[in-house]
């Protein structure tokens, strides 16, 4: 029965998506949704949730980390709104948090908007909670980019499209860009995936073993990537293994069988990636048999020379990305 319901849900979602595409402007994100966030997540979307909670009178630290204090604040907000108090920010909780704001407003919800625009569209706004002319211009620019009414008012549609929009991984002082498959623009992923990746890599880089090469993640609005069967929903990211000379960003790519492969450092990298996103790493595919035996990675064809990280969420429209 569960399989039948799952097939029915997938078929219904496909039909609804097709209808949305037909009814929407050419560049609108028919597949946009509020990404579920929960304990263990981190990044821009979590930071926005924290600002929206503060705006609703349920303040918690605005650090971009979905820790125990944020989960408690979410439950308190959910109870006040008559929602299921599970501490998970799904579409219903997002919808209740994401109040309509416009030019002239001054509150924490505007801060949440500003951090979104800075992260997703490089708006370079001052995060001061003041919906000024610069913020209004950035909102209109995003609305035009998304193919929705560019009225400068941030209501449910703008919030949903903005929160769903992917974030670019670069520039970042701890990451170098490698494009072995010629997909130079495929460095986008969800706000959570980027936040979690950056933290894990930063913790590894602090050990002094060199920067981490980023392969392909996704395009700005998802979609097919040459040479990849997945990487379409912003939660799959490729990185390269670490070399004994720490020259993984400047020397050639290696495999786990290469003489310059540093297993100990690569182990540290995987551990750091996992620790930065507790409960939100579905898999790390990399064919080093030792790391596989340790439960750190899993085997997958064609993954001798790179690590494929698949992040996941408490609930996702695609079951392959459910934690």
The CATH topology of the largest domain: Muramoyl-pentapeptide Carboxypeptidase, domain 2
How confident overall, as mean pLDDT?
91
Given helix and strand content, the structural type is mainly alpha
CATH class of the largest domain: Alpha Beta
CATH architecture of the largest domain: 2-Layer Sandwich
**Poorly predicted runs:** 1-26
Question: How far do the termini sit from each other?
Answer: 21 Å
Number of beta strands: 7
Q: Beta-strand level of the residues, as a percent range?
A: 5-15%
Largest sheet: 3 strands, antiparallel
Query: Helical content, roughly?
Result: 25-40%
The number of helical runs is 10
H/E topology pattern: HHHHHHHEEEHEEHEHE
Rounded Rg: 20 Å
Note the topology.
Blueprint: H1 2-23, H2 44-55, H3 68-80, H4 91-97, H5 108-121, H6 133-146, H7 156-164, E1 167-168, E2 175-177, E3 188-189, H8 191-205, E4 212-214, E5 236-239, H9 263-275, E6 281-285, H10 289-293, E7 307-311
Parallel strand pairs: 2-4
Antiparallel strand pairs: 1-3, 5-7, 6-7
